[in-house]
TrEMBL record:
Protein name: Nickel/cobalt efflux system
Transmembrane spans: 20-39, 85-106, 126-147, 186-207, 219-241, 261-286, 306-328
Residues forming coiled coils: none
Keywords: Membrane, Nickel, Transmembrane, Transmembrane helix, Transport
Length: 341
């Protein structure tokens, strides 16, 4: 009965977020069709916008933020399948708003966008770094509790209750309070919006829309909004899949004390290292732009490709998950779990 209810909830979430993404995609296609007959070159721009969205979803800051927020909210007993969609939707709203401003005020945007890009490069990056740092600290305390369970499990075979001593730490309570505003999936959209203020992808799509408007003065302004909507559909698709994958993974892990101790220890450790690393890189990149520091460290940080790092992180999670499932079946760990209970 419980399994059937969980399956129903999962199917409902898939239909809900899948429908949202489909609506965004259809809106983008309809706007595109309103002008593609006269300007067939818009098809190429639309394809680039959609693939930009697919590609940007693999940026390592996206993956680290979605994974760590999923981990934190799941620890609070929340439904986390919509974390990826909410983060991506909020992030893409920056793109849509900037594209709208750009196509309505083309001449103003040509002179102002570089200024916004510089300011956003510092402000947005600092926000992303701070949020990832908070998630790193909170999840580190959670990992500490898991490690204590791991050590206790190695000393005796009795069933263990979760270690809660780490939750009494003043540092843990301080950082946890800063994250208490995030209690539901839709609130993650605010975090995604703040991440998007870096204007990295927003500038790309805005320039693309501007190019279409400037090259063909006859294109209606609403037609050019097809580009940011297609970008949003692509990014939301991949980030939603990422969020659901991580939610399903962690849910399976914490379903029992045995899996929680052994597998959660590994995956949470990977998440913390990724979030901590990206937080450090973001801080270095922000200080480089803010104070014009040029040294080996800042040059190294600014030269990193977040998209490649994101794909590597996805690969690490996928390989770790495959190894975990293989060990679970080959070593018959489910039988040990039943014995432990």
């Amino acid at each position: 009965m419980i399994a059937r209810v969980k399956t129903t909830i999962f199917q409902r979430d898939v239909i809900r977020y899948g429908s949202f993404i489909l609506l965004i995609l259809l809106a983008g296609v309809l706007l595109l069709m309103s002008g593609v007959a006269r300007y067939p070159e818009m098809l190429g721009m639309a394809y680039l916008s959609f693939t930009f969205g697919l590609r940007h979803a693999f940026d390592v800051d996206h993956i680290a933020a979605i994974d760590n927020m999923t981990r934190k909210m799941l620890n609070d007993g929340k439904n986390t399948r919509g974390v990826g969609f909410a983060f991506s939707f909020g992030h893409s709203m920056v793109v849509v708003l900037m594209a709208l401003v750009t196509v309505l005020f083309v001449e103003w945007a040509k002179h102002t966008l570089p200024v916004f890009e510089q300011i956003g490069g510092v402000f947005g990056t600092m926000i992303a770094a701070t949020m990832l740092l908070l998630l790193t600290v909170v999840n580190t305390f959670i990992l500490r509790g898991i490690w204590r369970e791991f050590r206790q499990a190695g000393r005796q075979n009795t069933k263990h209750t979760p270690e809660t001593a780490y939750q009494q730490s003043g540092i843990y309570q301080f950082f946890l309070k800063l994250l208490q505003l995030i209690q539901h999936n839709w609130q993650v959209a605010v975090v995604g919006f703040l991440f998007g203020l870096g204007f990295d992808t927003a500038t790309q799509i805005a320039v693309l829309a501007t190019s279409a408007t400037a090259a063909n003065a006859g294109i209606a302004w609403y037609t050019t909004l097809a580009f940011p909507l297609l970008f949003t559909a692509g990014m939301c698709l991949m980030d939603t899949l990422d969020g659901m994958f991580m939610s399903t993974t962690y849910t399976w892990i914490v379903a029992s004390s045995y899996r929680k101790v052994y597998y959660n220890l590994i995956l949470t450790g990977i998440s913390i290292m990724a979030a901590g690393f990206i937080s450090f890189v973001d801080f270095v990149q922000a200080t480089r732009v803010l104070w014009h520091w040029h040294n080996p460290l800042t040059n190294w940080a600014s030269g990193l490709d977040f998209n490649q790092l994101g794909m590597i992180l996805v690969g690490i999670f996928a390989v770790t998950w495959c190894i975990a499932l293989t060990m679970w079946r080959v070593l018959h760990l489910s039988e040990k779990e039943l014995v432990g209970q």
